[in-house]
User: Which sequence fits this backbone?
């Protein structure tokens, strides 16, 4: 009995070590600087191991001339790609085994077996990468191919060997299971594993990009490398305040951003009203048709929305042709090139595109209202509008408040796509919002540090507004949203 307890204690400790090692190796999978497959300077330095194993064309994009000159043979690149792919698959298998380690003994045994196979495949892939590196480094034109050995190679290899050894140890330590035993896992672990993919996506696409904030403290130009020689501290933050032209642009951009955001916030009740009236429709077929018809625009890209607008409001569009034929206009007019009322136009297009989609959450909330409240109100003589005003609206207020506070927190985030496609020479000054300004500053002018500073301040202000809105909600409603 004591031996079993000792084995279980050791097994639990080993599992913690395995999970940490696998978590670290999965993170390494997405960090370009630790990509072991980057064995040549011709490979994009921003490419991670995951991308290397996912796309052969991206991995070999810089080897066109080297292959033609026979500095590198295609077989070497094929070995490199297959090895990178094997390493990725091995890492994915070990990640799956780590998830299985929170199940019962039978689940753990299967997970250990998968971990052994996955780490073995991963080690084989790393060996293949080393072979490809050896072939590239031995070419007669090594200076042209720029062979290099990634500092992440031995880190990933060490972790793979460690996972392999610990998984084999676990197979020995775990108690035997009966053949009729079932695979089981506690509910809390199942729910956590369902949540894990979303947590990983948020980490990769929301938090890892925050590493780019370091560009705000360097005198960086596209294509350069970061070094302490180019460290300038808060120079670009001061540039944002001291340069009159930059200050003038920021003021204009903030005016447009806040103006359009305030219009959106002031009309944020429209999806709720739409959902309430739609729920009162008795015909199920008509209700489904309207809901589908108003939801579809959300899935149309802004480029196609602009194409629709062009077909309707351009000089030879439907509206101009109709008015010319009716004699209202002597010649066609391009309403898209009119810079007046731009904020209202952008709000109208945004509302048309998103009101149906935004109403879904309110429709779901309405379906959760206790029907006995409506029956009691009907017995008391309440009409349809009285039931809507006294039951439906108060029931939706908590949902509306949460969404309203989130909108306030995102007041500086209007998006970019809509304003980019609708922008022209006549409305450029009134349509340029903060996201579009950052895009133009970074991509158009190549001012990466200043763009990063603006983005940083935007994020900080948004987070501050979120907590401020949360404080207001807690003070007024007694409930917080975060």
Assistant:
């Amino acid at each position: 009995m004591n031996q079993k307890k000792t084995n279980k204690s050791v097994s639990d400790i080993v599992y913690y070590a395995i999970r940490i090692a696998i978590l670290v190796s999965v993170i390494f999978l997405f960090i370009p600087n630790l990509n072991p497959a980057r064995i040549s300077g011709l490979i994009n330095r921003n490419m991670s191991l995951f991308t290397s194993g996912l796309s052969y064309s991206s991995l070999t994009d810089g080897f066109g001339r080297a292959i033609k000159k026979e500095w590198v043979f295609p077989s070497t690149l094929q070995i490199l790609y297959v090895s990178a792919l094997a390493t990725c698959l091995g890492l994915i298998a070990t990640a799956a085994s780590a998830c299985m380690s929170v199940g019962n003994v039978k689940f753990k045994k299967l997970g250990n077996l998968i971990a052994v196979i996955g780490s073995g495949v991963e080690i084989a892939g790393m060996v293949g990468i080393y072979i490809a590196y050896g072939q590239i480094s031995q070419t007669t034109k090594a200076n042209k191919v720029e062979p290099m050995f990634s500092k992440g190679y031995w880190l990933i290899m060490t972790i793979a060997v460690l996972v392999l050894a610990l998984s084999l140890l676990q197979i020995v330590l775990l108690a035997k299971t009966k053949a009729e035993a079932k695979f089981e896992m506690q509910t809390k672990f199942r729910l956590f594993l369902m949540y894990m993919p979303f947590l990983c996506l948020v980490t990769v696409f929301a938090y890892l990009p925050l590493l780019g904030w370091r560009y705000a403290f360097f005198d960086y130009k596209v294509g350069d490398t970061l070094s302490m020689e180019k460290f300038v501290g808060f120079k670009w933050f001061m540039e944002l305040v001291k340069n009159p032209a930059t200050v003038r642009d920021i003021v204009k951009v903030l005016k447009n951003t806040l103006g359009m955001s305030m219009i959106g916030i002031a009309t944020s009740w429209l999806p709720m009203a739409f959902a309430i009236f739609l729920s009162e429709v008795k015909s199920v077929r008509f209700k489904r048709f309207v809901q589908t018809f108003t939801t579809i625009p959300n899935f149309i890209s802004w480029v196609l929305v602009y194409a629709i607008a062009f077909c309707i409001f351009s000089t030879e569009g439907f509206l101009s042709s109709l008015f010319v034929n009716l004699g209202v206009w002597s010649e066609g007019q391009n309403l898209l090139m009119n810079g007046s009322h731009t904020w209202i136009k952008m709000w109208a297009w945004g509302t048309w595109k998103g009101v149906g989609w935004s109403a879904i959450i309110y429709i779901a909330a309405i379906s959760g209202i206790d029907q006995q409240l409506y029956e009691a109100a009907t017995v008391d003589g309440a009409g349809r509008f009285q039931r809507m005003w006294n039951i439906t609206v108060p029931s939706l207020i908590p949902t509306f408040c949460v969404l309203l506070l989130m909108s306030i927190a995102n007041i500086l985030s209007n998006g970019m796509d809509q304003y980019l496609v609708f922008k022209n020479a006549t409305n450029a000054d009134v349509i340029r919002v903060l996201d579009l300004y950052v895009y133009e500053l970074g991509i158009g002018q190549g001012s990466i540090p200043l763009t990063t500073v603006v983005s940083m301040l935007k994020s900080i202000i948004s987070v501050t507004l979120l907590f401020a809105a949360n404080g207001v909600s807690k003070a007024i409603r007694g409930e917080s949203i975060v």
